[in-house]
Amino acid sequence: MSDEHSLPGRLAADLDGHFEELVRTFQDRLYGFTLRLTSSPQDAEESAQDTFVRAYRALQRYPKERIATIKLKAWLYQIALNVVRNRVRRGRLTQVTLDAPVSDSLASDAREDHPDQVVIGVEGQARMANALQKLPERYATAVVLRHVQGLSYEEAGQVLGQPVGTTKSDVHRGLRLLRAALEPELELDPVGEPIA
Amino acid sequence: MNMNRQLLQDLRTLGVVNAPARLLENILDEVGLGDLYAPLDTPLGQVFVAWNKLGVSAVMMAATPDDFEGRFSDRFSRRPRQAARPPENLGERFDLRSVTDFERAVLLKAREIPKGEVRTYAWIARQIGHPAAVRAVGSALRKNPVPLLIPCHRVVRSDGHIGQYALGGSDNKRAILAYEGVPVDRTKVAVL
Known about the structure:
The structure holds two protein chains of two kinds. The two termini of chain A are 32 Å apart.
């Protein structure tokens, strides 16, 4: 299994020899991230591919000292976020409806690999994904980074290029909006306790 | 379950996603690190050879291109693309990422053995500074991803028995040694 923490050192010593390891280490997470941002498997795959190709070309230019100290996870998510935002800006994202395609994009393999982690089923996941997609991009991205992808607030702040406090605020705001959107379906009380 | 905890747990399930298998191959192809392959005629008949930006990554026997792609994919977890012919400089550089540092040292030492000569597993073990690791040398040679080009067939047992071979078994090892001019009887060569 790849040692994520020592990977920058290996990339600095031999980029071509360890780039495949970089892709294998992060491809599921970055594809999952771009899938949540785009809600389209095709756009997600193209965005993830573009992310890794840009990362490779950047690493080719960077001096070894810079590669050895790079915070790979936050750096890759930052590239992915820029790739998706650029595609949105240029109108290059596939138009999707908010119903069927999202459930199509959920990973059946992942459900089989992690049955214990499936709590809400395919329909529930689709509702959750749709609700996320309807949030303002700022809040949706913060929630996805922190609670879908599992980044720390510090890492999410680095990806978003903003202070940790602002990131926490965006995540909390996003969760409140998300809960409000889902409450009728989840049959929750209208007023919940603050979400940590 | 606490509603907030459930919301967070449900969000986490959205992150459990597997990337499509072709994603890795497409990325490696686009940056020039993907593998190509082609058939190669050798004294043992036709084999398939794969290479990438780092060098030759595999030499394998296979009945068909599809068979080779399947074997390559099983071993390296990525799929090569077919090319018309191997590159001119075949054998100058190797992609040995699939082996350990010890195995790499064994293979690179084996590469130094001249055509028409043989050395023993014990000789390799001594040469790489692990004189007691004779069995491990044999294991490393059996895992040689690029037989013929890295001539693991030139390594035999100390009693002259020709031993195992990564490319089709001991019959092929005997055949390629004979082709290279090593005097070999049914099971043994002369070890100096």
